[in-house]
């Protein structure tokens, strides 16, 4: 393994191999290596990180994400800058290796061999198998020397990490305090002062609009946009003339019968959630149950509008605006009490179901029994799958040829006509915006924005690549006031209305000397006091308002309960006066049940934070220089 070549260093084969490598590097490696060293992607304390280092690390990250996320990996990868992530990892590993060397941490060959031999993936019948070791590495595109170097580095890193995190000492009192904060419930009463109540009274003059535009010009800046033309090499289109044989269709059906053409029983349900925490009081649970039963009776009425009821009463923000629709789902996908109830119901039935989230008013819309597609039913999909498989290599071959033609001056229109494809020309778009006919695609947007007008580029999108050409570039700019007068007017009105709402809320807050004054002060202002049943503060969301971490954090600092938060809180332009009506820590029974698992999680989190702080300190003490242009070039080559 480690000494495989060393033991054969004097053989004729090894000498011949060595001279072959020398010749290869002389003729092929010098130019690339020399240029890479002149223009490194980054340096860490003077040590260079080259483009091929970053590319290799980025590819390993890509493969890892594909293994973890499977079919969802492409969507995940679109939102990740792999070269930047790869560079960060390389820098981190360099800093760790340097610190470990400084501290005298090392891993011997014997320790490395023992570690590798203990890995089950390299074993046969419980024993290390060298042939298995070579085969596994070959399948993963790695040489033994590369794997051993990476493993040694990881072992050194693990040793250093253990040295750092073992210093973390956490008392029982600290853990209990963290647990209380995590599971603390707060009840609130609040007065909302909506900015919309004041917008009708804002009548800006031309001079005010001009002054607002002048002082807030950057708010109206348009981002850089690009207009492109593109050809999409879709495999199904590329192989449109391909017709699989009956045997190929039958073979595919038999091979994928269980994975693609066998379908479990599915339920289509909607729900209205009346939220209440598991540790709520009996009175609170009873009130939630009563409300759920009332909503259920309304939903059971002959002409009931379940969607309207969901919009009005559901505490599930992800479905309330969709009529409570959960779509079709199989057994086991939902939480057990919910799952058991749904699959015991009849279509059209409405029932109340209790889970740890509260009480659900559930309506079963439809049931699809388990079934298997017949060959006839599956044939259309099979043909598409086989056609797509046939079209993937055709797409890759075609775009290679067409990119050369486009670089040689051929128009995209002529290229597309020869292929029987179409040229699309979407409206100009900016980074992060949806591209007409494509959707949001970071790779295409980044590539297009990096090109000059007239330049072409092939964008590998899996097996369905794009050939794009930049038609026009629109630089970032601030439109004139006359061009966006209505937008400026709308922004001015909202900004002024928000200030007026905040001013009114501050005036009301000054009148509230104790929680008992809330209703009286609200009534005089023609406002109402909204009551929020106790909820878990750590969630950062206030029921009825939404995500409001500033309010939930402030609720923890109120000294006397009940008590009013001493300043006006703002969320989405609206102003709030908030009373913390109750604040309860979890009881000892709940703590004793959760203590062991929570303690383990808490210590793990603290150790992770200490390790991250250690890495941040290494970064702050190191001299790190990053070349953005070289990193951008790596990003383009890997996209």
Structure write-up:
The chain starts with 11 loop residues before the first helix and ends with a helix. The longest helix is centred in the last third of the chain and has 34 residues, at about 590-620. It has 24 helices and 22 strands. Mean pLDDT is about 85; it is low at about 1-35. With about 650 residues, it is an alpha+beta fold. The strands form seven sheets. Strands 5, 16, 19, 20 and 21 form a five-stranded antiparallel β-sheet that branches. About 50% of the residues lie in helices and about 15% in strands. It folds into five domains: about 1-35; about 40-110 and about 145-170 and about 585-639, Porin chaperone SurA, peptide-binding domain (Triger factor/SurA peptide-binding fold, Orthogonal Bundle), CATH 1.10.4030.10; about 185-195 and about 485-585; about 225-245 and about 375-475, Chitinase A, domain 3, CATH 3.10.50; about 260-370, Chitinase A, domain 3 (Roll).
Silhouette: globular
Helix share bin: 40-55%
Largest pleated sheet: 5 strands, antiparallel
Number of strands: 22
**What class would the helix/strand composition place it in?**
alpha+beta
> What do we call the CATH topology of the largest domain?
Triger factor/SurA peptide-binding fold
The quaternary organization reads as single chain
CATH top level of the largest domain is: Mainly Alpha
Q: What are the segments in which pLDDT stays under 50 over at least 5 consecutive residues?
A: 1-37
CATH-defined superfamily of the largest domain: Porin chaperone SurA, peptide-binding domain
Query: pLDDT average, as an integer?
Result: 87
Number of helices: 24
Over the alpha carbons, how many angstroms does the gyration radius reach? 32 Å
CATH architecture of the largest domain: Orthogonal Bundle
Note the beta-strand portion: 15-25%
């Amino acid at each position: 393994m480690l000494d495989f070549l060393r033991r054969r260093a004097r053989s004729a084969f090894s000498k011949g191999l060595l001279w072959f490598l020398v010749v290869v590097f002389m003729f092929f490696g010098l130019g690339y290596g020399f240029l890479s060293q002149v223009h490194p992607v980054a340096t860490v304390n003077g040590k260079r990180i080259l483009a091929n280092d970053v590319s290799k690390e980025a590819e390993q990250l890509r493969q890892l994400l594909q293994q973890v996320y499977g079919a969802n990996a492409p969507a995940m990868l679109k939102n990740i800058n792999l070269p930047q992530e790869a560079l960060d990892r390389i820098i981190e590993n360099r800093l760790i290796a340097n610190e470990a060397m400084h501290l005298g941490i090392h891993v011997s060959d014997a320790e490395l061999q023992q570690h590798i031999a203990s890995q089950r993936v390299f074993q046969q019948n419980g024993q290390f198998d060298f042939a298995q070791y070579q085969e596994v590495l070959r399948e993963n595109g790695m040489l033994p020397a590369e794997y051993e170097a990476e493993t040694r580095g990881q072992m050194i890193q693990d040793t250093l990490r253990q040295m750092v995190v073992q210093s973390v000492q956490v008392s029982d009192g600290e853990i209990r305090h963290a647990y209380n904060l995590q599971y603390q419930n707060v009840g609130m009463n609040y007065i909302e002062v909506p900015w919309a109540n004041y917008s009708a009274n804002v009548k800006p003059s031309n001079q005010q609009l001009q002054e607002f535009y002048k002082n807030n010009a950057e708010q109206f800046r348009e981002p850089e946009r690009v207009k492109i033309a593109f050809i999409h090499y879709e495999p199904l289109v590329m192989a449109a003339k391909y017709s699989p044989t009956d045997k190929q269709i039958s073979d595919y059906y038999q091979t994928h019968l269980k994975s693609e053409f066998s379908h479990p029983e599915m339920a289509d349900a909607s729900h209205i959630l009346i939220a209440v925490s598991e540790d709520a009081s009996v009175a609170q649970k009873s009130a939630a149950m009563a409300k759920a039963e009332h909503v259920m009776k309304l939903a059971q009425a002959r002409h009931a509008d379940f969607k309207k009821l969901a919009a009005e009463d559901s505490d599930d923000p992800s479905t309330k605006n969709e009529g409570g629709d959960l779509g079709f789902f199989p057994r086991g996908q939902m939480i057990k009490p919910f799952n058991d109830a749904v699959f015991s119901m009849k279509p059209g039935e409405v029932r109340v179901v209790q889970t740890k989230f509260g009480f659900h008013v559930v309506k079963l819309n439809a049931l699809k029994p388990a079934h298997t597609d017949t060959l006839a039913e599956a044939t259309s999909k099979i043909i598409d799958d086989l056609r797509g498989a046939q079209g993937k290599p055709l797409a890759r071959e075609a775009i290679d040829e067409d990119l050369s033609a486009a670089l040689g001056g051929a128009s995209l229109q002529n290229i597309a006509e020869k292929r029987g494809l179409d040229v699309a020309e979407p409206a100009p778009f900016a980074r992060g915006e949806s591209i007409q006919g494509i959707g949001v695609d970071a790779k295409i947007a980044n590539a297009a924005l990096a090109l000059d007008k007239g330049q072409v580029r092939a964008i590998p999108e899996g097996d369905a690549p794009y050939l794009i050409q930049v038609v026009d570039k629109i630089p970032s700019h601030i439109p004139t006031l006359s061009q966006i007068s209505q937008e400026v007017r709308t922004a001015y009105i909202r900004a002024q209305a928000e200030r007026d709402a905040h001013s009114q809320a501050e005036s009301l807050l000054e009148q509230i000397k104790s929680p008992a004054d809330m209703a009286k002060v609200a009534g005089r202002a023609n406002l109402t006091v909204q009551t929020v049943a106790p909820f878990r503060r750590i969630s950062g969301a206030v029921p009825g308002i939404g995500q409001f971490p500033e309010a939930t954090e402030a609720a923890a600092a109120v000294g006397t309960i009940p008590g009013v938060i001493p300043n006006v809180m703002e969320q989405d332009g609206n102003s709030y006066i908030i009373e913390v009506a109750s604040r309860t820590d979890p009881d000892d029974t709940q703590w004793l049940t959760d203590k062991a698992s929570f303690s383990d999680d808490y210590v793990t989190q603290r150790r992770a934070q200490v390790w991250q702080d250690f890495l941040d300190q290494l970064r702050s003490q190191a001299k790190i220089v990053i070349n953005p242009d070289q990193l951008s070039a790596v990003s383009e080559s890997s996209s």
